[in-house]
Amino acid sequence: ATLLGQSIIHRGIEAVEKGANPVFVRQGIEKAGKEVAAKLLEESRPVDTNEDIESVATISSGDPEIGRLIAKAMEKVGKNGVITVDDSKGIEDELTITQGMEFDKGYISPYMVTDREKMVAELDDAYVLVTDQKISNVQDLVPLLQANIDAGNKPILIIADDLDADVTSTIVVNKLRGTFNVVAVKAPEFGDAQKAALEDIAIMTGAKFISKDLSMEIKNVTMEDLGKVKKATIKKDKTTLVGGEGDKKAVEDRIAELSSQEKAATSEYDKKALSKRIAKLSDGVAVLKVGALTESELKDKKLRIEDALNATKAAVAEGIVIGGGAALTEVYKELKPTLKDGNPDIQKGINAVMESLFDPLRQIASNAGFEPSEIVEAQKMAKKNYGFDAKNGKWVDMFKEGIVDPTKVTRSAILNASSIASLFVTTEAAVSEIKEEKPVAPSMGNDMY
Q1: 3-state secondary structure of 131
Q2: What's the rounded Cα separation, in Å, for the pair 30 and 64?
Q3: Does residue 155 register a pLDDT over 70?
Q4: For residue 36, which of 363, 379, 321 has the smallest C-alpha distance?
Q5: How many CA atoms lie within 13 A of 37 on its CB side?
Q6: So what's the pLDDT on residue 380?
Q7: In the beta sheet, which residues pair with residue 229?
Q8: pLDDT tens digits along 326-348
Q9: Buried/exposed code over 306-332 (b: 16+ C-beta within 10 A; e: otherwise)
Q10: Which domains does the chain possess?
Q11: Which of 99, 293, 309, 328 gets the highest tally of CB atoms within 10 A of its CB?
């Protein structure tokens, strides 16, 4: 997106400097961006097999072993299943399946994060409080928090309908002081669906569901009422629970109960909701445990696996297109004859996007030591689905060779680039950093500086 955005901005500004109306140029950029994104979806090929998944993961990570591991994980928990990345105790990578689930709610306050670089809160061996009540008085939590401190002060995840601002600020202040490690998230869903989701979480973690319908009060909660998980990962808008310590028989009974309800349900909406809940309880969580010899190698490997996971999930969602910058060139060939506008300034905006579609291929060719213009011209003449394998310096069927990109990633790149560029061409001024040339340090003699 950065490369495309820069290219579109330069061409758009050049058109404006030559007298084009910036508003019309903007319209052209927006129009072309949407057309290119739509054409990419048309050209997309669905990801159906494990081989496809493995290809995408391998390309994204640059490691065939990581590709195989991700494909195996998706096979175990399903394409929409929950997959997390953790440290291995040894130097080998391994895959484990454990009881757990994920829901679309994140931390209430960003000050609750434990990793500010990733903006994520990670709680190991944590207790879990599950309630459908709004916690309005921090004094209601004091007995529980004090009991936890006395028992060893393990992390606590609070899943509640909501928390008052005063309660949130008190938790944050004490967390920052190191008094305790508590993260609060809002409960998923609303109304009856929220109650059902919280009951599922309580069973999976072994917690007692503190329900307002039963007149249960937060101030009376004890350590015995809390559930436990081996790990909780809380992001801005997502919470993943791994290794829930709920009774397996209770989980199995709950799944059987939900399956019966699904069979009896008459509405399609209810059937889908029940099916989703069953999947969350039964599929579990795949944990990719990453091994390495050094801390720096481990960090790099985990980042590559996380990137590959995101790319693979994107491929499953919208399919794949040929990689290596070839897909955008193919789109250029398809759209160039028809993507026209009677307004010449709008056409200049369209052209800014269309001519930028070659730049990813140009950059790849240049990085591999080939003449960019020659590769681009050859790509324009290439057969459908054929592209340049920069690693081996030859023209191949990109799908057959597994050189592919997730459609969602490529589509998002062009949409984001055109969005930024369209804003930029109608902006009169921008703040940017001017890099200062640092003088070379004077020699101290004897080749020392």
Answers
A1: strand
A2: 38
A3: yes
A4: 321
A5: 18
A6: 93
A7: 126, 244
A8: 999 999 999 999 999 999 999 99
A9: bebbebbbbbbebbbbbbbbbbbbbbb
A10: 2-45+319-425 (1.10.560.10), 50-99+297-318 (3.30.260.10), 101-246 (3.50.7.10)
A11: 328
